[in-house]
Specification:
The protein is built from 18 helices and no strands. The chain is mainly α. It folds into three domains: about 120 residues, no CATH class; about 250 residues, no CATH class; about 100 residues. The protein is elongated, with a radius of gyration of 29 Å.
């Protein structure tokens, strides 16, 4: 795909940026799957499977889509074009943009041609790959932190812009600028800023976060289906409030922010509940998988077969919701059900990619008849390191989640305070100002309040992507941020309204 784009686009600067983006995406996917592909190749090599048969085996591994495509290309060139497998691997090494994958392939070729022990090379290379991936995961936390800080700066700039537009729209201090030919501030321009420009900036940051942070959950569609259905219902209701005379009173400045809040919560809360139910099971599986693999590895070290090792490890309690899945695996293995069917049942229960890949490797270990305890030890060590990295990520990213609530409160309080303070000042006879009608102030508060609620709702998806890697996690954060912003808006309006004598 990248090569075809290079042919058609012929190096314009914007298109080169697109190519770089696509290439980086492909490189990230290869680096993400490489540790598990290397581990599977190690298991196959330790069991006496040839190089070519190992790559043919990868052609059927759906959980490693990037390496499945690589394996299919290698098999195609061997079977159709008649090349030697090592020659094809060297060509793939020259073509790939991933330095780690290139070194892995070239070392693989060198070990085979020199007559060395391929299994030993793969074991040592796996340790190196796992260490590099662990360091890269820790560096990604710093990148995500920088991204969140940049997003916070964007919100501060947005807040300053809101304040500037409020001053322009509600006072005549800048009337000389208008009479001299400078463009004035019109309501359509404010609407464009609040409802189009600012949300698009948030979407831009979400795209960057999507590239930097990948979700462990695969095939996660149910929360989005629920959200789309509810969004259609909410959109119909909003349209009815503007078109139906009986419901038009709901668009009044006093009540419409409450209506917007209720509509956004209607979309987020049910979808968030669906996501939480799914994530709890998968989170327990991710947290318990290192202990489960450690039990299997120790059982293999004392000579138990892979099947008995799995049954023994599945008897342990304390795995939370993951225990139910392991109980199903143990009972099916004791009843003699095929390992392929057991794995298919596990895939229906779980959606977390690392856990499913680990199960797939266990299945392949059993299917090839034996399996290496040393390779399982490396897999277990990597899972334990991965768990530590994820735990550190959660603790390091927690302050940024708190920051989201702080900026929601800040932007709500500051915007309301400036609007009502400007209104109060215009009631005083000062040079260069005119009295601002109360209805205009209400319209300004209503306009910016709805924009703030929408912005906080979108911020929830950004926070969910950064913290948990999935936009579906944003439903619960968006609900909390919208509720926080609405409470802040109501409290600030009641307090300042009472202070300025606008409400009883």
């Amino acid at each position: 795909m990248v090569k075809n784009l290079q042919t058609h686009l012929q190096k314009p600067r914007v298109f080169r940026w697109v190519l770089t983006f696509l290439t980086k995406e492909d490189t990230n996917e290869i680096n993400r799957e490489l540790p598990f592909a290397a581990l599977l190749l190690t298991l196959l090599a330790a069991s006496g499977v040839t190089i070519y048969e190992s790559w043919k085996k990868l052609c059927s591994v759906s959980l490693l889509p990037t390496f499945r495509k690589e394996a299919r290309e290698i098999v195609r060139q061997v079977e159709i074009l008649g090349y030697d497998p090592l020659t094809v691997m060297r060509k793939q090494a020259e073509k790939t943009k991933s330095k780690i994958y290139r070194d892995f392939l070239l070392g693989y070729i060198s070990s085979v041609r020199s007559g060395g022990n391929l299994a030993n090379y793969l074991r040592s290379k796996m340790r190196s790959i796992f260490d590099v991936q662990t360091d890269a995961a820790m560096q990604s936390v710093e990148q995500l932190g920088t991204l969140v800080e940049a997003y916070a700066v964007m919100l501060i700039v947005t807040l300053c812009t809101y304040i500037l537009f409020i001053v322009f729209a509600t006072t005549s201090v800048f009337e000389p600028m208008k009479t001299s030919g400078a463009p004035g501030v019109s309501t359509p321009l404010v609407i464009l800023l609040v409802y189009v420009v600012t949300p698009l900036i948030s979407v831009f940051f979400m795209v960057i976060a999507h590239r930097e942070r990948k979700s462990h959950l695969i095939g996660l569609r149910k929360p989005y289906y629920v959200a789309v259905l509810l969004a259609a219902i909410v959109s119909s209701f909003i349209a009815a409030t503007n078109l139906t005379p009986m419901l038009r009173h709901l668009t009044g400045p006093e009540i419409f922010p409450l209506v917007v809040t209720a509509c956004l919560l209607t979309i987020s809360i049910p979808s968030g509940v669906v996501y939480v139910k799914i994530s709890l099971v998968n989170s327990d599986a991710e947290n318990s998988m290192p202990s489960f693999l450690r039990d299997i590895t120790e059982s293999r070290k004392i000579g138990l077969s892979p099947e008995k090792s799995v049954i023994h490890a599945a008897k342990r309690t304390g795995y939370g919701r993951f225990t139910e899945v392991l109980r199903l695996v143990r009972s099916q293995m004791e009843w003699g059900i095929s390992i392929r069917k057991i794995f298919a049942n596990v895939k229906r229960k779980l959606q977390t990619w690392p856990v499913l890949v680990n199960f797939m490797i266990l299945v392949e270990t059993i299917k090839i008849g034996g399996g290496s305890a040393a390779a399982l030890e490396i897999l277990t060590e990597y899972c334990e390191k991965q768990k530590d990295v994820e735990t550190n990520k959660t603790s390091l990213l927690r302050p940024y989640v708190l920051l989201a609530f702080i900026w929601s409160v800040l932007i709500a309080l500051t915007t309301t305070m400036v609007t009502m303070t400007v209104y109060a000042l215009t009631q005083i006879s000062l040079s260069g100002t005119t009295t601002m009608p109360f209805e205009v102030m209400q319209e300004q508060v209503n306009l910016f309040s709805n924009g703030i609620l929408l912005q906080c709702w979108l911020s929830g998806f950004f926070v969910g992507k950064v913290k948990e890697g999935s936009f579906a996690a944003g439903f619960k954060f968006s609900a909390m941020l919208v509720l926080t912003a609405h409470i802040s808006l109501m409290l600030s309006q009641v307090f300042l309204g009472g202070l300025f004598g606008l409400v009883s």
